[in-house]
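Appendix B. Extra example for self-study. Work through it before the problem class; the solution is given directly after the inputs so you can check yourself.
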Amino acid sequence: MAKHLVQTRLNGEPVEFLCDPHATLLDALRNTLQRTGAKEGCASGDCGACSVLLDGRLVCACLVLAAEVEGCEVTSVEGVAQAAQLHPIQQKLLEHAALQCGVCTPGIVVAAKALLDRNPDPSEREVRYWLAGNLCRCTGYDKIIRAILDAAAELRG
Amino acid sequence: MTNESKYRFVGTRPLRHDGVDKVTGRAQFGADFALPDMLWGRTLRSPHAHARILRMDTHRARALPGVAAVVTAADLPEVEPGPGPVNLRDLSCNVLARNKVLYHGHALAAVAATTEALAAEALELIEVEYEPLPPVLSLDDALAPGAAILHEGRAPKRYKVSGPTNVAARCEFSRGDLTRGFAEADLLLKRSFRTQTVHQGYIEPHAVLAQTGADGRSTLWCCTQGAFMVRHYCSALLGLDSAKLRVVPSEIGGGFGGKTTVYQEPVALLLSRVSGRPVKMVMSREEVFRATGPGCATRVEVKLGARRDGTLTAARASLWYEAGAFPGSPVEPGAMCIFAPYRIENLFIEGFDVCCNKPKTTAYRAPGAPQAAFAMESLLDELAQVLKLDPLELRSRNAAQKGDQLAYGPRFKEIGLTETLSKAREHPHYKAPLEAGCGRGVAVGFWFNAGMNSSATLHLGGDGGVSLVTGNPDIGGSRASLAMLCAEELGIEVERVRPVVADTDTAPYTDLTGGSRVTFATGMAVVEASRKLVAELCARAARIWDCEPAQVTFHEGRCLPTAASGLDHSPLSVAELAARMAQTGGPINAQAQLTARGPGPGFATHICDVRVDPETGRVEVLRYTAIQDAGRAIHPSYVEGQMQGGAAQGIGWALNEEYLYDENGALENAGFLDYRIPVASDLPMIDTVLVEVPNPTHPYGVRGVGETPIVAPLAAVANAVRAATGVRMTELPISPPRLLAALGLKQNGGAR
Ligand code: FES
Ligand code: FES
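Solution. Structure tokens for the complete assembly:
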């Protein structure tokens, strides 16, 4: 099967890669581009561990074909911190001890960023519903929700 | 919470050392490793729940271009069961089936090929001829007369029966005189409870990368709760010299007991040895559900005798736990736990380990205890209701105290059950008013906690920082808690300690991360190693001051002359002594190893409020409070996190989670869409109250905290549902269809 050449932007930089027509964006990120921050927890859109932004929109990278991102702007967890400066969401997750094993964390970071980018002042309920697609088996979500509300407050200044 | 204690770091909340890596995506989990020239391995799995393997032909798969290796059980040596607690022959047969497949999803063969797609294609070319056998899918099936037998010709342990049986073992504990105890009671209650198969549900699927060199030395990178465990099982199953195998634990994306054994690790190793190339294997979520975990389904029958004032006079329990395909359910710990929180003079407990055609069950957080507590704590709730006693008061009247003897022998030292009960009674949650249609339940949880073997090595750097090397994968913040113990002892900042989770060639031996043991047991080794390091620092100061080491003392990170010495020197800090190592005797390292005794049992009391929708049968958890004796919380945030996470897992177990099989034994909900674990919008905030009754055997009073929190929620939720609806749910999960059926029955006068 002939491979596709895909040209896209990843975390602000132009990249190009070859992919099989049926390869997912998650495959391309993890196996072709060696960006293993997005995790595969299910490959069926149910866990959110693979969350990335596609032109600013929150998607499950396991449900997007790699070939579809031609000409798009992809933001993965690797692009959330600016150089050595953590994003307030990342900093607050750490301060609230909102991760235990940490495998869900990249997806939570990206999903929370997508939320706060569009809604700077969400209620607890809004955060809970927004994150309903991001499974965490370790924390019971309590500290994650608090961290995101705290990050929102800090971002509002 | 303020840190009014005598400690500088213990009880504070520093940022974890591996935190930045984990929030930026840099941390490497099991599936994040790759090597040049790497092959992809995939596993052929049984489409039958129970069948004899008549013939297997792998020729066509081998002939497919791009396929580098195909392996089956024929490539594994036949191993003896061995003396350890895990039967190695069973483990081998679970890793690759021999003669028989015992569950839908049982691995039979594996292929390594240049791409995952090719490997999958090759699997389709493997021909297997089966003779299907009747599947045994429940305890009732397994115990029925004339049931198909999974392991023909295998005699059960401690259990006498004529003819073949699926019972693999029986255990028994007793004390006092049961007949007399029941005769002394004013009231007898008896009920039977059931729970279904559940999965640990860690978000990271099992993953391994294996590499073998031309010299026969291999390296495995994998996500596991214990690298030494993986090394042991892999070398035993493959008949390898374990000196030729190095296991590197990756970051681990959850385990909850489910990563305390091996599945594809020995297979990937074998494929890499056959092909001479690196082989990576990552399970799909479906494979994780079908062939790993799960936690066992159970039936537990409890009978209680009580006086009118609530005093328990006698208790009897029978427990049947599904082991799955091979013997080894956690029925024995379940039996040991069931009455542990209470002082009961007369008791009898028996447990049965029962095989059936489901995946071999694996440890799941406080293995065996939640199911046992569901039965006991539900029946206690009923007792309180009949006696018109406050349910916490009933528990307090019977609560075990220091000195009380457990059914299995030992006596309790300091324990915090009574403290958690009184904190629960005082908590605003317990007094808050409830709306109509809502109910409140409480329950107690108990877990032993484990000690086992641990080591720790400290290397002092010239900068005065310390590398802290252990072999315990950090599953929930143990790098931080271990580093804090080290910092406390050495009087240096927590950030100056660099905790390292090392591979099996580098780390001193440690048992796996499990049994809530790392901060307790490995923590003890860290404290001991730190004290050795301090002794060496004092010796170095003595050399500098030209005095006896006994004339030097250590306080808050500095060596100084003792008052008695009469010497007058300005103190030397760890950093100053580190800078002068080369002149005072060379490098400074310290190591400690121990078998940790006296882990100190954990107790918790949970309070749960629910609202039940009578139309749909949906149960919503409105408020939840977990109160637990942590002994001493080294890093309180991560202790709270364990309590909240355990509560959430328990709520899922109580309300939603169960394996659904079709009549042929095929798992029907092998994905997160249909096996629904709690999501953020399902839960409220989970309040925590830390109780600290120090464990006398630990230098800082630590008790394990990870497992206890999952023990109470099953009954706490069920008791809340009872309070809201008047219906006692004796079977989990309390899913909408099950609850609706029970509510309907009640309306028709069929139930109380
Ligand atoms: S891996 Fe994409 S949602 Fe789970
Ligand atoms: S921290 Fe482990 S899954 Fe969220």
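Self-check: The beta strands of chain A are 4-10, 13-19, 51-54, 57-60, 73-75. If your reasoning did not lead you there, revisit section 3.
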